[in-house]
Amino acid sequence: MDELEVQVADTEREREDAFSVRHEVFVEEQGVDESDEYDAYDETATHFVAYDSGEPIGAARLREYADGVGKVERVAVCASRRGSGVGRALMATLEARAETLGFVTLKLHSQTQAADFYRSLGYERHGGEFEEASIPHVEMRKPLE
Length: 145
Description:
By secondary structure, the protein is an alpha+beta fold.
């Protein structure tokens, strides 16, 4: 990785970059229907995009779920970049922004295969396994410091 940069996707171009990563990972790679991948929350959520030397390689979004609770969604890293710290960098930037927005807790629906990654970041599993977009998930939560 040459130059990893994670930022809030403030411009239309940056949002398009985040959406392109989500499309590659969720729609093309995992077979999620586009109608499930994109929703009304995309209009109001805070989006994040990770770049390596200007190339979009990761994305995530954060939205208000309840008073003081933020929901982390659509965390995606291009297959060729997984395991290289992109996901950790995305989550660190997202969590820092969540704190500035006043969230005291974050929750997310992790694909079951990614639960260990989130556990390593301090998220704890809540409840049993369930399906979203035909993929097994678990709910996880983390209090922010």
